[in-house]
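Supplementary Note 3. Input sequence used for the single-chain structure prediction.
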Amino acid sequence: MTTRAAPPTPRRARGLPRWLILTIVAAALVVVITIVATIAWLVTTGVRLLNAQPPGVGTRIVAPTESKAAQAAASGTLSGDEQDAAEYLAAQPTAYWLTPEIDPIGEVGSRILNLATEARDQDAAMAIVVYGLPERDCSAGESSGGLDDADYDTWTAEIGQALSAVTDVQKIVVLEPDSLAQAPDCGNIDQRVVELRNAIDSISDIDTWIYLDGGHSNWLSVDEQADLIQQVGDQDKVRGFAVNVSNYNSTVDEFSYAHELADALGWGHALIDTSRNGAGADGTNWCNPPGRLVGDAGGTYGDDVVDTNLWIKPPGESDGECNGGPTAGTWWPAGSVALTSAVLP
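The predicted structure, written as discrete structure tokens, is reproduced below.
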């Protein structure tokens, strides 16, 4: 009987060294992580680039449910023309005014996040007015108030933190209306310049368009207003200036003024407030002048200097205790009816 030899033991194939395998695996992980991070960056940047476009013709801002018009319409205390006017104005895209009296330290950030949520729901931009400067309205005017220096720094820092957390909504900031045009009368130009510069540093963000106080065509001369803006303006952080805020001058006059102001500065773009200029100005009467009307809707006009027009001052809120109005910023039913008389039956 022939005995067969056992088959030879197969030779184990020589594999890659362990260190090389680990190196390849690590490199692959780096590639995967880089791809994921790049995709995330592209998505985020894509959103930011969309929002990085400045306001322009067609811009639609949020109609805030926190507005005084909306609160009045929902109060159950109005009827007839007053109710109709409140409902109409509540539905109009209008800037929301942040004041320390209504949105104090510790709460203002939540307000901004709520406004951002509403803007997303309405597929709109968010427009806010920051209005809490120390010695606001010279501490004796119809809208007097504001914070002290330390609290103002804290308040604007909270505003900036909240704005920086909003990356998918276009953010428009009108910074302290009247603050510059009124400073010569208040006698505190140097103080205002420092306060506004600090506020800009706190609020500026990649997607935030900041507009300084540009006064209006019936106030300071172009050269005077340009000098004040130039003392504050940082072209890397500030888009330009807002004109006609809370005033009634015609859109044509404010376009001309904005162009002259930009020429004097050598830079800057403008927003024009058209919320209450539908009947033009009543001379120099700025405090609840009779016979005024709401103006053209925001996003209607614009050119190479004027980014667009917006409703910045909420129609229906009083300018002060004048011409029959209540205290500044208070909802005025009779005033809202008068302003909407040409658009409501």
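The chain has a mean pLDDT of 89. Residues 18-51 form the longest helix (34 residues).
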